[in-house]
Amino acid sequence: MSSTRLVSLASLSALAVPPPRFIEYAAAGGFDAVGVRVSDRPGERGHLLGEGSRLLADTLLALDDHGLDVLDVEVVKIHPGSSRSDWEPVLFAGAALGARYLIATVLDDDRDRAGDNLAALTQAAAQYGLRCCLEPMVFTAVRDLRAGRILLDESEATGAGLLLDALHWSRAGGTVDGLDTEVAHGRIPYWQLCDARMAGPARDDTAAMTEARGNRLPPGAGALPLRRLAAAIGPSASVSVEVPSARGAADPRRWAIELGTATRRLLARVPALPENPDAAASHRYPAPGNHDSKVPS
Known about the structure:
Strand content: 5-15%
Radius of gyration: 18 Å
Oligomer: single chain
Largest sheet: 9 strands, parallel
Number of strands: 9
Order of helices and strands: EHEHEHEHEHEEHHEHHEHH
Distance between the termini: 6 Å
């Protein structure tokens, strides 16, 4: 990917495709890395990558064959009955694949309990070499970045970060104010990129969920202020291209190539902003390892 950023293709862009084939398609699209959605039990959306499984072995071979990394694994949903046994399959797969980040969402309106579970998940993820990143979505208990920041600050989720999804950020009424500082302080280590037919807050949560799960557009094909958003975040944060669409199901290889082309085109047109003096500061929320020192291809 011709960018100073490491650019990954998110699993949801073609979720039905098994990881080894998905990696092949991501390489054809010019991506540096992939995301993998891991299922914790049969019947869940995602892929079973248990210890000793043929699918895990084939996925590792595909990563090696195509020279790609795994940026993140998902998703741990924190709900009232959450326990570590629910998280183990995702954590194991993330460590086995050499992933950098673990995506978490919160589906528990009890803030204290959710904070305790998030802290426990963050600590468990760190033991597997993963950095936990909380993804706010308007149809979850953590609707926006501000709510996510408050939950992280009030809990003991030391080291956890926030994952900004361009669609969810727009649907929550987000602005670019302060994003550069959040990145400089290590709070937003990477973000998810897509486009949409309209910008601004969602009409209702159901519409937002339907759009997010299967009705997104390639970067630059819609109305989201993506160049301004990318400029505010800056080139140090990795990018995950997450564009679930019927087109990804119909012809996933062509879709991956189209998304790669659209992403390169958009990132090449991002205006450079004056350097933020905070950018050189030490990260307050370091990842468990030195993963982001890798120079993207």
